[in-house]
Amino acid sequence: MIKKVDHIGIAVRTLETTLPFYTDVLNLPLLGIEEVESQKVRVAFLKAGETKLELLEPTSEESTIAKFIENRGEGIHHVALGVDSIEKRIKEMNEKGIRMIDKEPRIGAGGAHIAFMHPKSTSGVLVELCEKKG
Ligand code: ZN
Domain with 91 in it: what CATH number? Predict the structure, then answer.
């Protein structure tokens, strides 16, 4: 069911000041930058072998990423597990008593279908389930 760690989400204040570390120091290929309006973030994906790094820059103070940075500073925000049949996985998690933040999948960066688990059910780790469609 879990295919791999699809990506690791990292909250940053600005992509502009953070990206050079990943692209110039670590030499990771930049796969693209896009704005996800529904989540009020600008997202940069970097390729780190089989896994990606997702840098999340808030575009509004209302963004959950802005609130995260305000409370905890920049840093690792979530771990995304690649799955198939995300609807089934959500149902399965519910049956196993795991609290989901998203009861239904929503559309995230790259058009992926995503759903977050509640950190109270995962020992404090924000876990995203992520299914690439098409
Ligand atoms: Zn993510």
Answer: 3.10.180.10
pLDDT of 61 > 80? The answer is yes
Q: Which domain holds residue 29?
A: 2-131
Residue 116 pLDDT exceeds 80: yes
In the DSSP assignment, the letter for residue 97 is T
* 54 CA → ligand 1 middle, Å: 6
Quote the pLDDT of residue 133. 78
Say how many Å lie between the CA of residue 12 and the centre of ligand 1.
13
Q: How far away, in angstroms, is 60 Cα from ligand 1 center?
A: 18
Instruction: Count the domains in the chain.
Output: 1
